Amino acid sequence: MNEPMNPASCPLKPWTVPAYNGADYAMVSYGTARNWIGGAFVDAADGQQQPVLNPRYGQTMGTVVLSGAADVAQAVLVANKALPGWRSTPMKDRSQILLKFRELLLRDLVELSWLLAAENGKTFGESKADIEKGIECLEYACSLPNIAEGGGLEVSRGVRCEVMYEPVGIVGCIVPFNFPVMVPMWMIPNALAAGNCVLVKPSETVPYGCLRLAALLAEAGLPTGVFQTINGTRAAVEALVDHPDVGAIGFVGSTRVAKLLYARGSALGKRMLCLGGAKNHVLVVPDADVALTAQNVVASSFGCAGQRCMASSLMVAVGPVQHIIDAMVVAAKNIQVGKDMGTIVSAEAVTRITRYIDEAERQGAKVLVDGRKVQVPGCEGGFWVGPTILDHVRPDMPAACDEIFGPVLSIVRVDTVDQGIAVQNANAYGNGAAIFTTSGAVARYASERLHAGMVGINIGVPVPREPFAFGGWGDSKFGHGDMTGWDGFRFWCKPKKITSKWALQADATWMS
User: Fold this and answer.
1) Please, which pLDDT band fits residue 93 given cuts at 50, 70 and 90?
2) Residue 148 has what pLDDT?
3) pLDDT tens track for 158-216
4) Per-residue pLDDT tens digits for 325-340
5) Euclidean distance between CA atoms 467 and 136, whole angstroms
6) For the chain, N or C: smaller number of CB within 10 Å?
7) Which pairing describes strands 159-167 and 152-156: parallel, antiparallel, or unpaired?
8) Ordered domains of the chain (ranges, CATH)
9) Residue 73, by phi and psi: left (phi above 0), alpha (psi -120 to 50) or beta?
10) How many C-beta neighbours within 10 Å does residue 325 have?
C-alpha cells in the first residue's frame, strides 16, 4: 500500500503526501489518512485506525486514524500558540496565502478530482465540480479584505461609531461525507480570512480530501498550527465541541446529529451553526416547459446519487402533468449507472434506501423506474442503487416525509398550486424548494409562500452562488445566519463596536 510519507523521514517538506496515481475509475490504494497537527502528519494518540473503502468496488483503499480527546487537546494546544500571530496578521496578508492556496488547488484539480471520485464514489465530473465550488468559496474569502471593513458613521456631533470584526479564536468544522472538499471550503476560507485557527474533523468515510487540503495550505505558506485536522468518529466530535478553548463550531450532517450538537455546544456557551437534513419539494405545474423540467428535475434528484441536501427528492405534480412525468421516466432510464451516476456511499446506505422503496411499493406507490439490484460490470462488489421514481406516493408515507438520501424521487399528486404548497410547508424540513412553470405570476406566488430558505424557479438545485449564502429553515438548520457568503464570514467573527469622541462640543446631547 502506498503510505503517505512520515514527516520524520521525508526528504522534502513535512506536508509531502504521495500523488494519487489513479487517472480513471480503476481500484487504487492510497494509504493512511493521519491527523495534521503541529505541522506534521501524526497518528492518533491511542493508535486506532479503521478502513477507508472505495464504494465503487467495496474494497479497502486505505485507512484513517481514529482520534479522541487527547488528540483534540494537542491540536488546541498548538492552535493557542499560533493564534496571536495569525490574528495580528493583516487580512490582506492572510488573503495572499489563500490566493496561493487557490493556485495549488487549480494545479492539482484533476488529480484531486480522481481521488475524491475514489473515496466518495462520485463521477469524475461531480468530483471536479465539488472542488470547483470549493474554489468559488475560497475566491469569496480572498475578496474579504475589500469588503469586510466593518463601517463607521458619525452618529452625533463629534461622536463616531464603528465596527471591527475580530476572530472568535479557535474554531471547529465538522463536515460530512457527501462533499469532501466543497463543504469544508464553505467554512475554512472564511474562518481563516477572519483570523481564526481552524480545526477540521473530516468524515471518517472520506478523509483524503481534507488531508490534501491540509497539505496544500501548508505548501501555500499557512503558519504551523493555524489549520489542523483531527480524524475520527463520535469521540473526536464530542471532544471538539466540548473543549473550552474552541469558541465556535460549524457542522453539516444529519438533522439528528445537528440537533444534538447544537444543544450540546449552545449549553456550553459556544457559537453554533449546524446544518441538518432536507426533504426538498419541487412543484411542477401543467404549463412547465417539458424538456427543461424533465432534465432539471431528473438531474436534481439523481445527481451525486441523490446524496446531497439539495436533491429534489419529492415532486408535487399539480394537475395534468403526466406528459412531463413520462419525459422524466425516459430521462431517468437513460442514465447509465457507473458512468453518468456514481455509487452509494456504503452497503448500509444501500440497505436503507432499498427499504424505503420496498415499503412505498407495499403501501401502494407505483414504481415507474426501479433502481434496486443494479449492477455495474466489473464493480459487482460496489454499493449501487439506480435512479428510482415512485408515483402516487401519499404525503404521509415515509418515502414522502423522510430524507432518504439516495436516488429516489417520490411523486405526490395534487389538484392545485395551493395544495402543493401546503404539502411542502407541512414538512419539518425547510432547506430547498422549487417550482417549474412558464408563468411569472405562478412562480412569484409560489416562491413567496414556500417555507424554505432556498427557492428555485425552473432550477432544481437552487444553491446560491457567492456572495449569496447557503442555509435553510426548520429542521434543516440550527443556529442563526447562513454558512457561506457574508453571513459565513460574520459567523466566525466577534463584532466589536467602538464609539469615540475627541473634542468638547458646545451643544449638549444625551451622549454628552
Assistant:
1) very high
2) 87
3) 889 999 999 999 999 999 999 999 999 999 999 999 999 999 999 999 999 999 999 99
4) 999 999 999 999 999 9
5) 10
6) N
7) antiparallel
8) 7-276+480-494 (3.40.605.10), 280-457 (3.40.309.10)
9) alpha
10) 20
Q: Which three cell numbers stand for residue 389?
A: 421514481
d(Cα 344, Cα 178) in Å, to the nearest integer? 10
Q: What is the pLDDT of residues 232-279, one digit of tens each?
A: 999 999 999 999 999 999 999 999 999 999 999 999 999 999 999 999
Instruction: Supply the DSSP symbol for 113.
Output: H
Tell me if 255 sits within 8 A of 476, measured CB to CB.
yes
**Is residue 277 a contact partner of residue 403, using CB atoms and an 8 Å limit?**
yes
Q: Count the alpha carbons within 13 Å of 236 in the hemisphere toward its beta carbon.
A: 27
Closest by CA position to 198, among listed 165, 171, 238:
171
Strand partners, 388: 408
DSSP codes of every residue in 125-178: HHHHHHHHHHHHHHHHHHHHHHH----EEEEETTEEEEEEEEE-SEEEEE--SS
**What would the DSSP string read from start to end of 183-238?**
HHHHHHHHHHHTT-EEEEE--TTS-HHHHHHHHHHHHTTPPTTSEEE---SHHHHH
What pLDDT score was predicted for residue 15? 83
The pLDDT > 70 percentage for the chain reads 96
* Torsion angle in degrees (nearest 10) through CA of 406, 105, 222, 136: -60
Residue located via cell numbers 501548508? 218
- Between 11 and 219, the more confident residue is 219
Q: Which residue has the higher pLDDT, 507 or 435?
A: 435
- 176: cis peptide before it, omega within 30°? no
* Catalytically annotated residues: 309
Q: Is the pLDDT of residue 11 over 60?
A: no
**If you write DSSP's letter for every residue of 50-68 in order, what string do you get?**
EEEEETTTTEEEEEEE---
Look up residue 499 and give its three cell numbers: 464609539
Three-class DSSP category at 360? helix
Residue 51 has a CB neighbour count (10 Å cut-off) of: 11
pTM of the prediction? 0.94
Confidence band of 3 (pLDDT split at 50, 70, 90): very low
Measured distance CA(29)–CA(51) in Å, rounded? 11
E strand or H helix at 497: strand 493-501
Number of Cα atoms under 13 Å in the Cβ half of residue 390: 30
Q: pLDDT-derived band of residue 136, with 50, 70 and 90 as boundaries?
A: very high
Q: Please count the residues of the chain.
A: 512
Number of C-beta neighbours around residue 245 at 10 A: 14
Query: 387: which 3 cell numbers?
Result: 435512479
